[in-house]
Design brief:
With about 280 residues, the protein is mainly α. The chain has one domain. About 70% of the residues lie in helices and about 0% in strands. Helix 3 crosses helix 7 and helix 7 crosses helix 8.
Length: about 280
């Protein structure tokens, strides 16, 4: 008979969530835990909504200043002759989601410093569920800013679809894109291990991700080397899908969604693998 020390943590850890037997987490229970973690993340907005308002300023300025100016000077040739402001709006929507998600790893570092992450790691919840819950919470946060961009674009005269199914699909695309970039941020957190390093790396990669995508200009206008980078940039596929859904530009929606799903799954796998390193 084996004795257990009082106050000892449960024998099942986050690493053992998928083990067969009594410790195995069923699919329904796994989804429940993911949704619970996602809900906990979203409840934080009730205490401080300043982040959402301040992060919405920069994308709004891009749409107002950059979009209006380049619409007037006709500097960029858009496909099918659509107004540049309409072409730009989905790109700025994706940009706003990127800016929210790419620094999401700071929160998980804060949770480590506060001791919250260590407590989560000794629960039966798999690491993948912890990461997925946080990733999709970042996606839902991004939707709030996305609504601001869509409303502003409508005020500026951009003709977007009113089809509720297409709007719902666009919301899912934003969530998928944000989930990947938040996982990228949490993966960087697992390597950098400090908020200052994560901030530096995040700032270093944000604008290259943005400018190497098709958010501001068509891919065909890029030099060859930049086109190659754009083809492996998930943000390009997110923008492409949003343009097809919101303004009716012909796109390969199946390919776009497939790439985003694959990127999100890969992001969850990598971030989950690095989570124990961060929790130490």
């Amino acid at each position: 008979m084996t004795s257990v020390a009082p106050g000892a943590p449960p024998a099942v850890s986050a690493d053992q969530g998928w083990a067969p037997g009594s410790g195995r987490v069923g699919l329904r229970q796994l989804l429940s835990r993911m949704l619970t973690l996602c809900w906990v993340e979203l409840r934080k907005l009730r205490h401080d909504r300043t982040e959402l308002y301040t992060r919405a300023i920069q994308p709004a300025l891009w749409l107002l200043i950059f979009g209006e100016t380049f619409t007037r000077i006709h500097a960029i040739q858009t496909p099918n002759g659509i107004p540049y402001l309409a072409y730009l709006a989905p790109g700025i929507l994706a940009q706003s989601a990127l800016f929210v998600a790419i620094f999401y790893g700071i929160q998980i570092i804060w949770e480590r410093d506060a001791g919250v992450l260590a407590k989560l790691m000794v629960t039966p919840t798999p690491r993948s569920a912890l990461i997925t819950g946080k990733a999709f919470a970042a996606g839902l946060r991004s939707l709030v800013q996305g609504v601001v961009i869509v409303v502003l674009a409508a005020i500026l005269g951009v003709a977007m679809t009113g089809n509720p199914l297409k709007l719902l699909a666009a919301a899912c695309v934003v969530v998928l894109g944000s989930a990947f970039f938040s996982c990228l941020s949490m993966s960087i957190a697992g390597v950098a291990l400090s908020r200052d390093r994560l901030m530096g790396i995040g700032q270093a990669i944000t604008m290259p991700l943005f400018f190497s995508s098709n958010a501001l200009y068509p891919t065909r206008l890029m030099p060859g080397w930049l086109q190659a980078i754009s083809k492996v940039n998930p943000l390009s596929y997110e923008v492409d899908a949003l343009r097809g859904l919101l303004i009716g530009v012909p796109t390969n929606l199946g390919l776009d969604v497939s790439v985003l799903v694959a990127a999100a799954v890969a992001g969850v796998v990598v971030a989950s693998a690095l989570l124990p390193r961060l929790a130490k």
